[in-house]
């Protein structure tokens, strides 16, 4: 602790006797010395044992300037105008840290707080007699910079005795001359070892002592045990249904615990949510799911995730110039769910595979899942819809005649974009020119700086063009290719300014690539072709997004592809593109995805009945090709027993000629406007199936086929996986307990999400919140993470 004011009694005669003020100071000083001397002999107040009068001199004239009282316990200095009050506030009130309770006249007082831990500094306040609890600490806490304290005792305008700076305290010591005369005060800077940051720590130290001195518990609002249990259940549900977005460690975060305490909740540990409560919640959801499956007459299995990240080449260069690797060969996360006839879906399980799997392996996993769900009654499973492994699906369908196994329509539309990128010359030409342009702009230092300058000027951002690492046609790399095309299209004006810049013209003199790039940028045909490619991808992407949101049934497949054909034909006309090559690619993809059940469901679903001139509502056979009509007959005869085949075909002929009673047909086709999207949608999607089970009950054999076909989904996408949970699973995939907990949490989250028909994930919602990407952006999860 630094030394402070220490001024022993001096001979008053050493001061000038000519100055009236000095005489008054000396007189006051002598009087206090006399009082203190008597008190130490037992003839005065108790506090004089701890308060010592000192004489403060002017450093310039050595004349007495003021009389002060110094605490002999902590070296703090005070005005001498009222010793009794000083003693009461400094000693009895608990300001002095070294005033022992044994020395107090009232030992019942509480322990004293910190006063001068950092420095026994002196602080005097202008026109204020009342001292703060701690001069040094309170000044530190308030971070007063250059706050001068003036003593106004006896109406003297004395200089400041204490200055507190932002990172140091000023303390004072007295010194004497060679004749042992007190000549003034010397300032000493006490530097805190931690610098300015020590101010907060010192304040916290004082707060801690104050809490110990008078502990005050301020609990949150009192909750009953029932309220606490209910709140805890809701918190646990939220945590499980977040599905990995919130980590177990977050439960023990100090701020989260402080929040719980504030609302009157007890602290929660990881063990509370990873043990019995998790098991109970899992078994509760599983029992409910199994009961609903038992109640249904039949169901469809949806398998999603086979094709996700199935190759190893989707690295690309980001817009900031750095590389980012999206290595594809990693553990796949294949999800299985169950679609029920009433339109609801139930999560079943997740299977983790070590990368791509063979057709045989996929077939085994699919059939094992069907057996696990249906038990002995395997015929309750009337079909599978999957995003991959068409051969495995076909094999299972051949082995089990009652099944209808379909490829996912969403995946089919995504694959169509890949088909165009590989097989359409326009796509290849645009991609090659764009790569050449982007690489030159990103890699030439002078051009790159010019591009950034103009981009900042025009678009208020300076990122480079995103460039794919290679020309692989996997989904991830296709996304990166079109991200590059989008960047170039958005920067068309900027690139024009770059190539017209004088500095660029200088580069063109020596660099043939610069001249070629300038030719590309200034070629109107390049921009027309780029716009055409962009528009076609946007068109398909838009339809894929609707498929993902609407989750159509298989009866809608033929109308969807017909709608696509019409839009593609309009695109060809708008951009003056030859139709034949484009239509060939579309038809090739259609045939790969086509299943005879599309035609059968389209014919049997009352939703698509067409009113003829006689007023009857008849099935739309005229919309089918001759081959598709044959497919309807073949499928129906396959799905019934051999004995029923002939009867089913006869009933089909009757259905074709008579159709459905107009009143019921109109009731099935009633539409209403969706309050969210504003689009017209079928008011009661279950009507199509219910009509067959009620007013069309006369069709015994055909009705069995119709009710099983009509409810089948055309997409395999369920709830979207959460990347936070996937990361956690990858870390713990070799731990049986960790993987088991992950499976349980996935089940609980998926069960809840599917129950409220929430097929999104938290990452997408956050992206929307922070406006990452626009409504017209090409880069979309439908390319990078398609179910």
UniProtKB/TrEMBL annotation:
Using the UniProt annotation, give all residue ranges assigned to the region (Disordered).
1-22
Composition bias (Low complexity) maps to 1-17
Domain called DUF7963: residue spans: 16-100
InterPro entries hit by this protein: DUF7963, RNaseH-like_sf
The signal sequence is none
One short Pfam name that applies is DUF7963
Q: What's the protein name?
A: DUF7963 domain-containing protein
**From what organism does this protein derive?**
Gossypium hirsutum
